[in-house]
Amino acid sequence: MVTVPALLSSNVARNPMRLGHSCVAKFVCFAYNSGATRGMSGSGHRPPQVAVIGGGIAGAVCSHFLARRGAHVDVFDMGRQQPGGRASSRTPGGGGGGGPDVFQFDYGCQYFQTRSPAMKQLLAEWLAAGVVAEWRPRVGVYDVARGALRSREELSPSEAAALAEGGLPPLPCPSSGPLYAGSPSMGALVAHLLRPEEGGAAEGAAEGAAEGAEGRPPPSPHQQQQQQQQQQGGEEAEGGGGGGIHLRLNTRVIGARWSNDRWQLTWQQAQRGRGGGAAAAAGGTAGGEGAAGGGGGGWYDALVLTDNQVVRPGAPGHIVFQDAGPALEALATRLTQLTRRPQFALMMGWTGAGAEAGAGAGAGAAGSAGRALPPRLPCDAMHVLGGNAVQWIAVDSSKPGRSRADGGQCWLALTRPDFAARLLAADAAAADAAGAGSSSPLPAGPEYRARRAAEIWTALQEELRHIPGLAALPPPAFLSAHRWSSCFTANPLGRPFESDDGSGGGGSGGRWAACGDFCTGPGLEPAAASGALAARAVADMLGLPERAPAAVNGGAAGGVGECGGAAPMSASDWSGAF
């Protein structure tokens, strides 16, 4: 098991060039060390244990609010070095101690906006913590058919709708409000959300979750609370303290069984493999259950699902459920009917005139000798209209706090879903030919990423060749691709979240919630709202108090940006988020 402080401290130690991350790591480590010895609530009972599957925005927000309500949360994420899902960032070339070949990319979520009152409250907290900043890009639309740049206002309704078909959030324009990005990366925002709360649970809380993993589970805190209420004549048991967050990176939950009023989970940690198999978690492998290539199991009072792949056999995140109940079975059926839009992200990095000659940036480097000056887009972010391959290009180094001293450039391009689908169809054919079956995707190792990156790079050059100054793009010093096989949902569920409290009787199943942008559509705010509302539902199932302890994150309850020190906001507070 990897805690967030250990993860960030290790990443900073290995890569001091990640400007700003050291400050985040120091803050997280302080919060962890100040709270790690406090542990349990004032009632003397172990806090409820909640398992959150997925450390993307929905999972991170849900975990954050559950911890504020006093739950102990284990976050399971298949990320190799950091959580975040599509809110992750990548910093290739940093393993050697920094230098001109260090690049940074937000290779999923590009920006976000706020509309609902609740999201604006969260934004205030994030701005105060320094983990987001306003991004004021020059945004344009490149019309491939005309070979010309156009403004958002020039587009017809059908053209604007065509841009939205790619699964991106609405096209930003001056009237839509400010854009925000993570600072110094989107990954910093997720790390902020998943930091242990002050007054959070100690390592022993995680041991309590795994206690009794064989055979009959120990009495759950929920059961203890019910017993105490019965003994005290129905008086409500004291709650609130003892919440905390623990992160299990590089870990895939493979089984979930509802038994004796609790969830029994089993999981595996992927081994480091040649050719791009999942690597060990950053900062070294944790001992015991978290050992690389090992497995583990534990008991939880509630389960939160934030990944729609959990019900898809053959998918990397597939979970086998047992005795989960008809409500979860019905949700699984609905999730299998969702249409998923794949996407590839192309990461391109150029060093500037001030860069020193040196080693390349790892497997994706084009080499340092004879580098050309970096190209310049005519704007900071650009939608591509009518292209065959690419729908969005952003200069990642134009985001706040990311400009390079050497004048280099970091570009991020997102492919069209139909182009990505053709690449995945080729993957499926190759897997079939290799006898692996089309349901098992090809390993996304260095060779695979380099091959796909070269294909997308060629297509990108073709589409941009009519832009002045970009007819012949110089080869980047770093070039790589990331595969999002199930990136967006074309037909979301239509509800902010789904849940069941297991109170129906007759084998109704366990306490669970499902949240994420597959519920209502793409975008950081819908995902955050979904996670917050799911957290409220789960906390209510567990009988947790409405308000967090008096001090949260080192400040008084009700302080600026702390959402009043309270639980997730109500559904009415999130109006406008979807």
UniProtKB/TrEMBL annotation:
Residues 273-292 have a biased composition (Gly residues). Residues 203-212, 223-234 have a biased composition (Low complexity). It comes from the Eukaryota. Transmembrane segments: none annotated. InterPro entries: FAD/NAD-bd_sf (IPR036188). PANTHER family: FAD/NAD(P)-BINDING OXIDOREDUCTASE FAMILY PROTEIN, FAD_NAD(P)-BINDING OXIDOREDUCTASE FAMILY PROTEIN. This is Amine oxidase domain-containing protein. It comes from Pleodorina starrii.
